[in-house]
Amino acid sequence: MCRHIAYLGPDVPLGRILTEPPHSLYRQSWAPRRQRNGTVNADGFGVGWYAPGDPVPARYRKAGPIWADPSFTDLARVVRTGALLAAVRDTTDGSAPDESATAPYGEGSWLFSHNGAVPGWPGSVADLAADLSAEELLGIEARCDAALLWALILHRLRAGYALGDALAETVTDVAARTEARLNFLLTDGSSIAATAWGDSLWHRLDPGRSVAVASEPYDDEPGWIEVPDRTLLLATRDRIETALLKEPPV
């Protein structure tokens, strides 16, 4: 499993969201409070952020634990952004151990993270790869379940799907084949789409100013709301919308 977070709002240092709060993503790497599977997220970390005037985010990813990289703490102190997606990783068995398998994944303006696992991967979902072209298959960034899920979602995004629809249809397809945990987080820098499917998801909205969507609250301040399981969430700085995800056929 993993922990992840997306933020939209006023420009702030990365550390204001990721390292400074008492239960920040940094601390969740060794002491998550609401993680249902796994205990330590020390197999990698990453953050993607958007700079003013550039729709393509930068990414900083490492294969080791976040607490072992003092350069990141220094970077997070000075780099400012109004939109980010970050994650700490607990590796799925059989997955690549290097930073290529560490979220966020990205293409163009999109950033993506998966908190969960796909039992029986890759065999349990191998038939879904038939929807991908040879170029898309060869372009999968890493050997892990999250990278394949990202390829399936990216295929839909390239075809013109809205962020939420791309996530929802992928959840339905995968859940019909295996008892997967599929908490997705996806942003284009101006909106966030997320799914709660098998693990915790929370959000906090300050309408017209900021929104955070995360595996768990990074502080104990009021305003955090837990998202029910089997839910699709769509968020902007102005509003939160939720809808039940379609259950796979029995």
From TrEMBL:
Keyword terms: Glutamine amidotransferase, Hydrolase
Keyword Oxidoreductase: no
Function as written in the Swiss-Prot or TrEMBL entry: Catalyzes the hydrolysis of the gamma-glutamyl amide bond of hercynyl-gamma-L-glutamyl-L-cysteine sulfoxide to produce hercynylcysteine sulfoxide, a step in the biosynthesis pathway of ergothioneine.
Catalytic activity: gamma-L-glutamyl-hercynylcysteine S-oxide + H2O = S-(hercyn-2-yl)-L-cysteine S-oxide + L-glutamate
Glutamine amidotransferase type-2 domain residues: 2-250
PANTHER family, per the entry: GAMMA-GLUTAMYL-HERCYNYLCYSTEINE SULFOXIDE HYDROLASE (PTHR43187:SF2), GLUTAMINE AMIDOTRANSFERASE DUG3-RELATED (PTHR43187)
InterPro entries: EgtC (IPR017808), EgtC-like (IPR026869), EgtC_Actinobacteria (IPR032889), Gamma-glu_amide_hydrolase (IPR052373), GATase_2_dom (IPR017932), Ntn_hydrolases_N (IPR029055)
Catalytic class of the enzyme: hydrolase
Gene3D superfamilies: Glutamine Phosphoribosylpyrophosphate, subunit 1, domain 1
Record keyword Hydrolase present: yes
Domain of life of the organism encoding this protein: Bacteria
Organism: Streptantibioticus ferralitis
UniProt cross-references to HAMAP family, sorted A to Z: EgtC
EC number: 3.5.1.118
Annotated protein name in UniProt: Gamma-glutamyl-hercynylcysteine sulfoxide hydrolase
Pathway of action: Amino-acid biosynthesis; ergothioneine biosynthesis
